[in-house]
Design goal:
A: 170 residues; alpha+beta; 2 domains; 34% helix; B: 256 residues; 5-stranded antiparallel sheet; 10 helices
Chain lengths: 170, 256
């Protein structure tokens, strides 16, 4: 079996029913998809399969043989983050961070298919993702900002400017 | 891990490999079966993986709509203009990502959120198994689906349809209780429920009283055995089923 993971071709040695999640994490060392509930209920393992968000924990690798897989590692780098990554950073949309990978992949797919900054539509698109820190407000704010195509000066964000702008700590 | 994993690349190959179904575990989208394996509750010996079998797709020929067994649930949302109830029922299943992966056949043969809606649509089911291919009503298929591989379901486009479900606060519970109503051009009305004990079921007493929504709602309780589980008590389902029936019939009136 073969996968293209973040643009790199890989031959897969794992068994055909091994979950895509286990292939990515254990065989290929791509660790941004998280093993949360491993029954499709939390969204922490979501990756893009040919551009569509899918729960990698529910996906036998043989069912996506030949597909192009995108994970957070393929979105951007710390020096060159994707718009969704920048928005999550600027809006402090990650707390513990465990759900963040899946949230960002779902958000990326949502915006790629033309999603707007409408909060109800965002909730619908991210409805399968749970954040146990309950940081939903900032997550939805971040996705909405990314959907609007906003850009951010993260050197300012890092100094707490965004919090000041939100009326938080000065 | 299963000793034999078969990945057919055509419908004919899937039918041949399924054979009489003995000892074979079928995986459509994987959303139901894969967690069972992950948690060690299922150790299949022989797996038929349908991802590349070409059993997916929605075809419309005249008034007849046919849905392949491995069509993802999300694809039903595109039928909103033709069969409003089916699109609404599909939208009620899980979340965007699960709907994109879970299949119509897997849902019908598994947790069954789509059963009542397709029964109300008077769908027929085409399946294969020990005695070869068979086409029968979806109700009959669901009653004896063991050892069968569902290939597709077909139904005629209705004049009007409506779907009402109990709302629940999380995307990942299965349908607590839902009612679908379908009206044909000649005025025939069919009603079916999902979320009662056993598979989806026609509400025939309620259908006979369809012109009186309140009476039909009251009668519907006698058509079913109410499930009593963690999602809702039988008492609660008994209180809400008449309401759902009434709402569906009212929506049908408004859209006819």
């Amino acid at each position: 079996m073969n996968l293209t993971v973040n643009g790199v071709d890989a031959t897969i040695e794992s068994g055909p029913l091994t979950s895509l999640l286990d292939v990515l994490r254990e065989e290929l060392g791509v660790t941004s998809p998280k093993a949360g509930c491993e029954q499709g209920g939390c969204g922490a393992c979501t990756v893009l399969v040919d551009g569509e968000p899918r729960r990698s924990c529910l996906t036998p690798v043989a069912s996506v043989d030949g597909a192009a897989i995108t994970t957070v590692e393929g979105l951007g780098s710390p020096e060159d983050m994707s718009p969704v990554q920048q928005a999550f950073t600027h809006h402090y949309a990650a707390q513990c961070g465990f759900c963040t990978s899946g949230m960002m992949m779902a958000a990326t797919a949502y915006i790629d298919r033309g999603g707007s900054d409408d909060h109800d539509a965002i909730k619908e698109a991210l409805g399968g993702h749970v954040c146990r820190c309950t940081g939903y407000v900032k997550i939805i704010d971040a996705v909405a900002a990314a959907a609007r195509g906003e850009s951010f000066d993260l050197t300012v964000t890092a100094q707490g400017a965004a919090m000041t702008n939100l009326g938080g700590v000065a | 891990m299963a000793s034999e994993v078969l990945v057919p690349s055509s419908p004919a190959e899937a039918v041949a490999l399924f054979g009489d179904g003995a000892g074979t575990t079928v995986i459509g989208g994987g959303t139901v079966v894969v967690p069972e394996m992950t948690y060690g509750r299922l150790h299949p010996e022989r797996v038929l993986l349908l991802s590349h079998a070409g059993l997916d797709g929605v075809t419309v020929a005249g008034d007849t709509i046919t849905i392949g067994a491995t069509t993802p649930v999300n694809a039903l949302l595109a039928l909103e203009d033709q069969v409003a109830a089916l699109a609404a029922c599909a939208h009620n299943v899980a979340d965007y990502e699960i709907r994109g992966q879970g299949t119509v056949g897997g849902n019908l043969c598994g947790h069954g959120d789509l059963q009542g809606c397709l029964i109300a649509l008077d769908a027929t089911a085409r399946s294969t198994g020990a005695d070869g291919e068979r086409t029968e009503s979806l109700e009959d298929f669901l009653a004896q689906r063991h050892g069968r591989l569902l290939l597709d379901v077909s139904f005629r486009r209705p004049a009007a349809s409506a779907f009402v479900a109990l709302e629940y606060p999380h995307t990942h519970e299965y349908t607590v209780l839902a009612v679908t109503g379908v009206r044909d051009a000649d005025g025939t009305t069919r009603l079916a429920a999902t979320g009662v004990a056993g598979p989806g079921i026609r509400l025939r007493s309620a259908e006979a009283l369809a012109s009186d929504p309140a009476a039909a709602g009251a009668a519907a309780v006698g058509d079913v055995t109410l499930a009593d589980d963690a999602l809702a008590s039988a008492w609660y389902r008994g209180q809400t089923l008449p309401v759902l029936v009434r709402r569906v019939l009212t929506q049908l009136e408004e859209s006819s």
